[in-house]
Design a protein that fits this description.
The protein is of the alpha+beta class. It has one domain (2-170). It is built from 7 helices and 7 strands. The longest helix is centred in the middle third of the chain and has 16 residues, at 88-103.
Amino acid sequence: MRTVTGIFDTYADGQAAVRALENANIPRDSISIVSRDEDGNVRNGDGAVDGAETGAGLGALAGGAGGLLAGLGMLSIPGVGPVVAAGWLASTITGLAAGAVAGGAAGGIIGALTDAGVPEDEAHVYAESLRRGGTLVTARVEDAMAPTAARILDESRRVDWNLRRREYSESGWTTFDETQPYDTAPGSLSRPEGGLTGRL
């Protein structure tokens, strides 16, 4: 099994990636989406839904979608804050957080991603991008399906994580630190004017 991961600058692009993965017959329980915007809200294509809202807000975010997107729920990730999430990664984060409380194990978003096989340096960029308002989509697939999943994420406007890491590093960032507050001041996002820097 391989974990194919992409960070997106908008929820709409992440949503499109999830739908395309499902259309390629990748099982829903192999896909995950986690999203947060720069104000601590979860954002849909038409506006923002406050991170503390549930119910109707989640329905609006999903846009009446079926599949994985219909299962969106709220989750708080240390160092990231409130997110809307669905799929295996959300369950893994919740499980790791419970384990960390009970036995001091590594939890949070970094632990969930690295346990799934994402290299740690990439995981730090994905976590920081999520903190700064990105949308993270992951798919756990058989090796033979990995190129197809990667192509789908590219066609859905996945951000090149290496370029994003360079952007963050230029402002002094080194690694994701979940002890830092997740709120970011307006204008502090290291995001390009047009949305995305590049694709893998």
